Amino acid sequence: MVVLSAAILASDGNKPLMSRQFVEMPRMRIEGLLAAFPKLITSQHSQQKQHTFVETDTVRYVYQPLENSLYLLLITTKTSNIVEDLGTLRLLAKVVPDVAGGQTEASVNENAFELIFAFDEVLTVGGYKEEITLSNIQKNLAMESHDEKVHIMLEEKKKEEATKRMEERSAQIARGKMEAMKNQMMNGGVNDGTSGLGSSSGMEGFGGGGHTDGYENNAAPYNYNASKNNEQVVDEGPRVVAKVGMKLGGIGGKKKDNLMANMAKEDNFALLLGSKKTTDALGLGAAAPAPAAPSTPLTIVLEEKYTVAMNREGGIDSCDLKGTLTLTANTEAGSMASLSLNKDVISSKCGSSWNFATHPKVNKPDYEKKGLITLKGGKGLPINRPVGVIRWSYSGDDAAPLSINCWPEEDNGYINVNIEFELIRPEMTLQDVNILLPLGGTDPPQIEAIDGQYKHDAETGMMCWHHDEISAQNSSGSLEFTIHGSDVDAFFPVQVMFKSDTFLCPIEVTSVKSTGNGAPVPHSLTRNVVPDKYTIA
């Protein structure tokens, strides 16, 4: 068989809609053949046949009526196999509605190129029929490729990884901002006017139930140092004073600046020097002075750190407590000191849920029997190097000191936030409590009611709810504010910071003596209780 052309005609064959030629022939010839077709079928009165043919001197017309006065037409040579031509006609009759989506003139015009591609799948160049089915034609027209699918999957995976990295980077930047704000809060100071930190009564630093854009800088900046106030110096002997010889050299450069700074400090003019800390985004306080040289032979630090994860309803998901007893020998006398602990009290009050561990170099039999902290072999502590001699840990919901309950609710483009706290352990006193809330934007919150004071930092989009002290006398408090937004999840995670000297572990240092002569060793003792990570999410 040789098919010269395949065409679709409308208006009972008088209007050609599309035609595909499979052999070379002039345009005038194909137009003449198509123009002769309606006259031939009229003269033969073959319109009502399901599919039929009509011949001329040179070609044969094989056609089939379709819906809506359409005709599907094959123009073949007279020597072509009529049976194969009819099979080709039936296959093309199935292809037309499948590709065009219907048997109307508009659908054929709209999908003319797709029909040409489908005809090319059925008939090759030269007019010969391919051994192909309708499903194979659909598959070929879809042009599905395994390699293309793999490429698309790889590209989507790359996009997902890039999105994941972007989210991780965004979260890292947000955490960096929150850590920066935490450090600024811990270092003290008040915010500048751009952050709108102030109170309706004109007090500096924190807003007390109101919010204005100004601030006063005549009051002393707020101090968040968590260790200075808890340090206890036990003076049991003469103070150790370091001796420094006279140094030669002129006064100039940095030395001159230091001399001017000291003079200004003596005259209370330190703020006039314009140090970098005075322009800090969250405070106007001067830089903290350098730590003083140890004044005792031995420094003792007792510390407990909380790691607490809470849910939004105030429930405690996990609570871990870790404590350490750290010794730092400042002189030879301090290196040869031995500590006595209240081992009997610790053993009686700390049950099996507590874990205690001593440093491998600590003489464990002395500690277990007598509660003494000494090193093995009579060795002394290293000079000017902190050594953790005892560690303890405890896991239990009853250890958490504070419960936070945060309820943000969306209402017509605004979010109303109610947040409450409650002191779970009434025997504990918390100082400098700061509850940090992300606001999800730079807009200042509109305070409805507040217990305590607040700060707002527009640059980081954070709000700090501050309490000087939380104890059994003021064991609960609440804050209510509204802010523009619609994402209630933007207010999490909430972070909590505080300091205290109330230990959960009943550990006490009862005496510090020299291992050589048993004389008391002067020492300083610091007790710190701080959160390592206290979040509500």
List keywords for this structure.
ten-stranded mixed sheet, 22 strands, alpha+beta, 10 helices, 537 residues, five-stranded antiparallel sheet
Task: Explain how this protein is built.
The model is unreliable at 189-231, 233-257 and 263-288 (pLDDT under 50). The chain has ten helices and 22 strands. It is elongated. The chain has helices at 27-44, 82-100, 105-110, 112-122, 134-142, 146-187, 254-266, 332-335, 343-349, 364-370, and strands spanning 3-10, 15-21, 52-55, 59-65, 71-77, 231-234, 298-310, 316-329, 337-341, 354-358, 372-373, 387-395, 402-411, 414-423, 430-438, 446-450, 453-457, 462-470, 476-484, 494-499, 509-514, 523-536. It has 537 residues and is of the alpha+beta class. Strands 6, 7, 8, 10, 12, 15, 17, 18, 20 and 22 form a ten-stranded mixed sheet that branches. Strands 2-1-5-4-3 form a five-stranded antiparallel sheet, with helices on both faces. Helix 4 (112-122) crosses helix 5 (134-142). The two termini are 76 Å apart.
